[in-house]
Amino acid sequence: MFFFIIVKSYEYTNLRSTDEFCDFLARNLKTGILTMIAQHGEQAAISIALTGSGGAGVMTAGGLLLDAVGKHGCYGLQTRSVGPQIRGGESAALLRLSGDPVETHSACFDILLALDWNNYTRFSAEIPLNASSIVITDPAVDAAPETIAAAGCTMVELPLKEMADDISGGRVNMIALGVAAGAIGLPLETVSGLIAGKLASKGEAAVRSSVACVEAGFESGRAIADVPKLAPSSHSEASVRWLMTGNEAAALGAVRGGIRFAAAYPITPATEILEWLAPALTKVGGTLVQAEDELASINMIIGASFGGVPSITATSGPGFALMTEAIGLATAAEVPVVVVDVMRGGPSTGIPTKSEQSDLNIAVYGLHGDAPHIVVAPVSLADCLFTTQWAAHLAEAMQAPAIVLSDQFFGQARMIVDRPANVAFIAERKIAERCDNDYARYAVTADGVSPMAVPGTPCGQYTADGLEHSVSGTPSSSAEDHLKQLAKRRTKIESHDYGVHWAEIEGEGDLVILTWGSTAAPVREAARRARAQGANVKTVAVRLLAPLEVETLHAEISGARGVLVIEQTESAQFYRYLRSQCDLPANTRAVHQPGPLMIKPEDVLHEIMTELGR
Amino acid sequence: MNAPALPKASDYKSELKPVWCPGCGDYHVLLSLTKAFAALKLRPEEIAVVSGIGCSSRIPAYTNCYGFHGVHGRALPLGTGLKVARPELTVLVTGGDGDGFSIGGNHFLHACRRNIDITYVVMDNRVYGMTKGQPSPTTEPDWDSALSPGGTGVRPFHPLVIALASGANFVARTFSGDIKGTTDTIVQAINHPGFSFVEILSPCVTFRPDQRGWKSVVHPAPVEPTDDAARAARRIMTDDGFNVGVLYRGSREPYMVERAKETGEPAQFDGMFEI
Amino acid sequence: MTNAPGPQITDLGELLAYAHAIEVDAMERYQLLADQMETHNNRELAKLFRELAGHEEKHAAKILEQAGESGLPVIEESAFHWLGTESPEAADLDAAHYRMTPWHALQMALGAEQRAFAFFDHLVNTVSEPEVKKWAEEFRDEEAEHVELVERLLKLHPEPAEGWDLDDDPPYLQD
CA-based, 20 to 30 A from A437: which of A417, A506, B241, C41? Predict the structure, then answer.
């Protein structure tokens, strides 16, 4: 069995030499082989893909499976891959489930449950399979593509459609949910109990037939041989876990941070932030306005914030590009705003439903003129909460725009996480409570932040201006005023004490990996795996992208034998940005790949081992 | 002299001297605006004047109110955000025909639709003054210029009809030189609930010296304001473009900014995520 | 243009308030014009408008004095009713030009004084209260003197030749 799997893997991965094969073996020593050996028992993490088309409802089934895993006390995440159709398209629910927290997909799926094979090639690159994978399929619906068989997967045929047809009101996605739950060893009661709650609004009959489907599927699933089982939960009974998307986390962070106004123009994959905020803001005394375009939404939040109300908008690359002129206005007029850019594949319309980190350059450099501002990026899905909350605090403290660079993976993945800690960061603006006739809105102060009079304050009247201005706000083209105000705006950003939050650092070692955003997730997992193999690796996930904490960063990489910069861009934007600011060691290596495919822990592990000469 | 001092127009003027050309209609508009504020007895700190870019968009800093001189074409969203966030303020959005109808045209449509309780004052001189005289959306098609030699040949934009069709709740045209009429109209516009649009014909003496002649061609609208949008549209589309007065006074409910706001704590949302 | 209903003045206090407002408005208008001329570096005209503003200021002060200890009744700006679209003695802003000459300024002043004369003349012909009428006549006569004064000054400042507004440089680009 062991040898067989190795050979199968060898074939599957198309390794070209024995050296590569040995590397492959080394890389998979822990992740692959141990996993395969453990096939009959519990496994560290299980990856499952549910695919289907034409309204089969795989996303619902996948969502319920993750919910059930949560109820069971375990962890997991769910992403999706969908066709371009609004309804009826082919879709894949991609899950990774574990007893321990997991925050990214791995390089191989253990189970593929295909309700049909329509346009399966759309996702095949996102659902890598190998000889250890189990493919569950209904031959009465479709024959599996030849590529599947070629991968050497174990094929399990189940009459999914017929099973659903046998149950009054039965739906094939609920059969699939039962199969998956049974196969990985989830308790049936957990799943059926969940359905009763989640589908209660659809009526008793719907609940009854769904439960019947799950029960029928469950038995078939349990009967499948050699399926890895979900390991028991590692979390203690006392700890609280949350199930959320990064977009929800960002929105909650905004509200916790004191944001009370939002302007919204829908765009994939940021819309959920705005949709979450719309009802939530009204419950905490705030408001959301739907704007006519992104030019309007950014200007609306600048107007609201000028009025003294902490404000936010969320968008993605195309909308962000439209907003850059006004973000420059917020910089010049010193109006705090938070702009969340949930990045997707670019340029232009690009790949709206897929993650990429290629808006780094526009976020850092996209404003015309010398326009110091803040750019932060969450370092994990749950950290979308902290980072957005922190961004609100930073924007308000410095009276400047703060850009949050989230991405489609963080934004739209659903994940079970340990309850994020409550943090104290809140919007606190230096306000001119009382003004006299000498009030100068843009007075030069030691820290560059000057008290802001909000409309309604007697004697505080001034005109906020995008034109360069004197300390009082009067338009000015004098060299002296320009120098003073440029320096003031730079000073407040550069001299701020960002504390320890500039990055999340794990481990110690000769090899330092610099990364950011959702790429930090596979990097962390790979580093943990490497450490389990005795390698010393330090990971630095940079949260504060601008201004970059150059000295602190230097301290973290000083003495490193090697530095890897890992990111999801085609042009190595992060690496080049770091190079432009820092003295990186000569042997620094950039590892970068564009979307839509995510960097996997196994990819990173390979790079680590290569770097360490293992 | 013991009676309480009444607000005077000059109370609403800043010490900043306008850079407009002498003879420019915008001087009159500034006077009318400050007179209107005085007539309404508003406190200067409770007024915000928001603008974009252009000659007329310089107006906020010339008032003693809170002001925002934003980017080109985006004054209406700025004002919208401010009003929604701070409904108790009196918000005026000001600017020119290029700012409002060309680069900002989309915002104009949607601000009319949204019907937020703000007043939009456009000083229309049918030319881009700050960039040395290019045709704007309201310029006559045969007006010769360096950028469009021989004229644009393009039909002018009709702001009043578009405002009406898009849902503005108050539509008026005035002439800058008619300070009393303009003042009265601005007072009515501010008092009227919802989105009020006031187009002020405001001559550009530098690039459109012919507009000095507007003084002799403007005339009061021969009819009373109507609340019938169809009738107002017909009148506006068939008049000579120099009818001044309030042309439409609608009764549409303004955008709900005072929605029932609860004042709960963010901790209430934690339950949404707990497993 | 606005159809002005015209003033309805029934007592002396009100008349004095009108007369005072006329002078203050005239003063402020000349100040505004002086500011415009300063901004546009026409120093001769800035000085001239400043002087005219000074005259109006004195007239306003004199009326306050005439009102005596009781002072003037408080009337809102918007409650004043003029014959035209604004306070009669406020100079016509439309006529301003950055290269204007004293002749142009005096033409503006002449128009302003003539309108003020017409205003008080209208009062003389329409008010019934004898004391108001008497004071209105006095104000009218003062305005007549001002008209004559300006006409005399105009003789010293003849109309400039064509080309007075010539500027060899093109306008500057701003924002």
Answer: C41
CA A173/CA A176 separation, integer angstroms: 5
What superfamily does domain A243-418 belong to in CATH? Thiamin diphosphate (ThDP)-binding fold, Pyr/PP domains (3.40.50.970)
Q: How far is A451 from chain B (nearest CA, A)?
A: 15
Delimit the CATH 3.40.920.10 region(s) of chain A.
41-230
Q: Which of C78, C86, C175 is nearest residue B54 as measured by Cβ atoms?
A: C175
Give the gap in angstroms from C-alpha B34 to the nearest C-alpha of chain A.
15
Q: Please, which chains are in contact with B (at least 3 CB pairs closer than 8 A)?
A: A, C
Q: Domains in chain B, ordered, with CATH?
A: 18-272 (3.40.50.970)
CA A375 – CA A364 distance, rounded (Å): 7
Q: What is the largest CA-CA distance in chain B?
A: 75
Residue A30's Cβ-count burial label (10 Å; 0-12, 13-18, 19+) is middle
CA distance B44 to chain A (A): 8
Q: What is the pLDDT averaged over residues C159-163?
A: 95
**What are residue A287's DSSP bridge partners?**
A261
Question: Residues of CATH 3.40.50.970 domain(s) within chain A?
Answer: 243-418
Cβ pair A294, A265 in contact under 8 A: yes
Fold of A41-230: Pyruvate-ferredoxin Oxidoreductase; domain 3 (3.40.920)
Q: Which of B179, B68, B175, B71 is nearest to B118 (CA)?
A: B68
A419 in reach of chain B (CB within 8 A): yes
Residue C109, pLDDT above cutoff 50: yes
**Cβ neighbours of residue A442 closer than 8 Å, sequence gap 6 or more:** A334, A450, A469, A470, A471, A472, A473, A485, A488
Domain with CATH 3.40.50.920 in chain A: 500-611
Chains that touch A (3 or more CB pairs under 8 A): B
Asked if C40 has any chain B CB less than 8 Å from its own CB, the reply is yes
If pLDDT is split at 50, 70 and 90, which confidence band does B257 have? low
Contacts of B183 in chain C (CB under 8 A): 78
Task: Return the structure tokens found at A350.
Answer: 């690009």
pLDDT, tens digit, for every residue of B57-100? 999 999 999 999 999 999 999 999 999 999 999 999 999 999 99
pLDDT, averaged across chain A: 92
Predicted local confidence at residue C3, as pLDDT: 52
C129/B contact by beta carbon, under 8 A: no
* Closest-CA residue of chain B to C95: B23
Q: In what order do the strands lie in the sheet with B170-175?
A: A463-465, B66-69, B47-51, B90-96, B119-124, B196-201, B170-175, B243-249, B219-220
Q: Give the span between the Cα atoms of A337 and A314, in whole angstroms.
A: 11
pLDDT score of C4 more than 80: no
Q: Please state, in angstroms and rounded to a whole number, the distance separating the CA atoms of residues A580 and A365.
A: 12
Q: Which residue has the tokens 């010393």?
A: A536
Q: CATH number of the domain at C12-156, please?
A: 1.20.1260.10
Angle between helices B25-40 and B179-191 (to 10 degrees): 50
Any chain B CB within 8 A of the CB of A265?
no
Dist. CA C136–CA A222, nearest whole Å: 108
For residue A347, say if its preceding peptide bond is cis, omega within 30 degrees of 0.
yes
Question: What are the two backbone dihedrals, phi and then psi, of residue A215, each rounded to the nearest 5 degrees?
Answer: -60, -45
> Which secondary structure element, helix H or strand E, spans residue A415, and what is its range?
strand A414-418
User: Would you state the structure tokens that stand for residue B235, as one six-digit string?
Assistant: 């009148």
Chain A residues closer than 8 Å to B78 by CB: 299-300, 302-303, 306
What is the length of chain C?
Answer: 175
Instruction: Encode pLDDT of A482-540 as tens digits.
Output: 999 999 999 999 999 999 999 999 999 989 999 999 999 999 999 999 999 999 999 99
Its CATH class, for the domain covering A500-611, is alpha beta
